[in-house]
Amino acid sequence: MWTVTIRPSTVFPMVCLGPIVMSRRPQGPVSKKLKLSEEEKKESPTKQTPAKLSANSLFGMGNPLLDISAVVDKNFLDKYTLKPNDQILAEDKHKALFDELVKLKVEYHAGGATQNSIKIAQWMIQEPHNVGTFFGCIGKDKFGEILKQKAEEAHIDAHYYEQDEEPTGSCAACITGDNRSLVANLAAANCYKKDKHLDLEENWKLVEKAKVFYIAGFFLTVSLESILKVAKHASENDKIFCLNLSAPFICQFFKDNLMQVMPYVDVLFGNETEAAAFAKEQDFETKDIKEIAKKAQALPKDNTKRQRIVVLTQGKDATVLASSDKVETFPVLKIDSKDIVDTNGAGDAFVGGFLSELVQEKPLHQCVKAAHYAANVIIRRAESKRKRLIPQWEGHIIHKQRNKE
Q: Cβ(141)–Cβ(61) under 8 Å?
């Protein structure tokens, strides 16, 4: 079991230390529909017509976790030797924690890095439903049934490999005030099998229907062969394959797996910490994030029809995007610290927002704008209140108007 510190928005999907999106323009008043600022309203809308979306256009594969949130007290934390604000992988001493937690007043949400991003992309798109497909492994148990229900409620087309050797993976969020102590039990998420799920004809047909693919780096520790099959399919058919560096330890301890997949990567995501670790392992001999983006973009690539795009976030600092022969920066949306309600999942939301536009073949600047918007919304709301929100930003409004026409 790894005991390294990793970015929680991937293995620990309910938190973000990645793009804590603090952004370039103030949002409007808090309401069920977030209002655009006057500056946003003045911006010229893109003239490119969005691609027509159909079910299963966006494909994700990763580690599904059932997020379980409950308010606890200090005695509960002390009982399981938890810190108020921490992220750890579950050990044997934490097994009883999950049983005890579900006896409290809990909230359940479909989680895991990739599933979170697919869920947010679908939320940004709104209609049609089931644009996003998700593959992963769960157990044949109560948590698995809840996870299936929550995925359905999020309007994503989840097809899980169900096995009875390990229980469904889960992530306990033990809340005390503004603090969250996260305990992740990957369990069944580690048991995905290419030959027993991905290779099945009915499942592979869903892969063939997709035009954009996204996988978080943590899945490199689970099923490299599954990732390579999907990545090669994307490359051979001139589709878009996206990968997230996910955590420094992926770049360090799973470097060989990562670099086997890299030639097929069209869009590479990461944050500044992961970028630094990646640069060190690849002997880039630079700590400058723009240079790292350029060097990562220039790594060997299988499908030469598409130049690689590298997207690196830096917390409250500007997002760096390397494309073609240039590197651009995009300021993130500003937000007052008092307006931050819940940072859980903001990193995955950034990717989800980006993917929601990418799958519609929108320009890269529009993809970044959507990414910043989605993450900004997420940190303003507890997850239980997010599903009542309707995305209302420049791109979404334009899409809706065109659909009506």
A: no
**pTM of this prediction exceeds 0.90:** no
Q: How far apart are CA 257 and CA 403, in angstroms?
A: 42
Token pair of 26, please?
A: 């103030």
Q: Is the pLDDT of residue 25 over 50?
A: no
Pairing of β 326-330 and β 317-323: antiparallel
Q: Which domains does the chain have, with CATH numbers?
A: 58-64+111-168+186-385 (3.40.1190.20)
Q: Does 348 qualify as catalytic in the annotation?
A: yes
Choose, from 157, 266, 342, 348, the residue flagged as catalytic.
348
pLDDT digits (tens, 9 = 90+) for 181-230: 888 899 999 999 999 999 999 999 999 999 999 999 999 999 999 999 99
Dist. CA 113–CA 220, nearest whole Å: 13
Convert 225-263 to b/e letters by CB count within 10 Å (16 or more is b).
ebbebbbbbbbeeebbbbbbbbbbbbbeebeebbeebbe
Strand bridging mode 317-323 / 132-139:
unpaired
